[in-house]
Amino acid sequence: MTQYTSQLANSISNFNLDVHVITPKCTNENVNYFNENISFNYVPQIKKLLSLNSFRFDIFIKCIFDINPDIIHITMEHPWLIPYLLVFENKCPIVSTIHDSKKHPGDWSPYPYLISLKLLKKKSSRIIVHSKAVKNQLLTEGIPEKKINVIPHGAHSFFSKYCIKDVAEENWILFFGRIVDYKGIEYLIKAEPLITNQFPNTKIVIAGNGDVSKYKNFISNKEKFIFINEYISDEMTAQLFTKSKLVVLPYIEASQSGIIPIAYSFKKPVITTQVGGLPEVVKDGITGYVVPPRNYELLANAIINLLGNDQLRVKMGENAYIFMNENLSWDQIAYNILDVYKSALNQK
Fold this sequence. Notes:
Layout: H1 2-13, E1 19-24, E2 38-43, E3 45-49, E4 52-55, H2 57-67, E5 72-74, H3 82-88, E6 94-97, H4 111-123, E7 126-129, H5 132-140, E8 148-150, E9 172-176, H6 185-198, E10 203-207, E11 225-228, H7 234-243, E12 246-249, H8 259-265, E13 270-273, H9 278-281, E14 288-291, H10 296-307, H11 310-327, H12 330-347
Parallel strand pairs: 1-2, 5-6, 6-7, 7-8, 9-10, 9-12, 10-11, 12-13, 13-14
Antiparallel strand pairs: 3-4
Helix pairs in contact: 1-12, 6-10, 8-11
């Protein structure tokens, strides 16, 4: 989330606006993500409450009053924002970015988080979502359409600064991200025998935090897999995307994915599924392929098609990079977010 918030803050500050970021002191090491125009206000964390991180509310509230903002933009729900919302909802408009409107299968969301999410939906003057699919979910919950603004997830092109020149591609298929049930990893694993029967030297790289033990039973050929089951640094992220031939996201449910812009920044095509907002960003047959969820045979066919046609694979990667620059640039996103801010201020 630091990477997302930093790019948002940086792009907004480019419009000669004063941007203040309130963050726990424990994230101080991430300050290099932000440009020199950003002002930081640190709020110390305290002992966990109900197994969730909390922080000094007195300092937090003082920061808000000292800054005296025109807009408060919340980039992620947190249960301990609840009293803050009650204090400041009448002080200035609150704009919230809601990444997921509901809990995904297998994703741990304690009750306080769900309450916080519900309050954000109710108390925010404007809501930003990253896909039409999430907007439609909010509409079914009775959120007024005038409050909801669809703005795509911005590019993660800053990862490219960690690239090592002249690194050759490996015969790798990359799954990248948190390892949780809704990501559908078992379908990629089940597709492996079909893929390696055609391309025996191919390996599937599964990189990210999470419990991989439940997927071991699906694996037929252990030597065809590389598991990097840990937090992935920016440097390693760049290496993995650089070396991989394509990226596969076999999700069974989704809102959107921040992994797709990373893949596009490395000119890698993405094969994903027809769920949530993923088809809004992966253009079938242009920047990758979109297949039905839970169908490992069609997933394998799409992968085999790209592995067997380097010219098409490279072309799709180039298309993905162009799409990113034309549709996912933070300059354009910041411009659209400023319109949301203006709308919220005019409503006040």
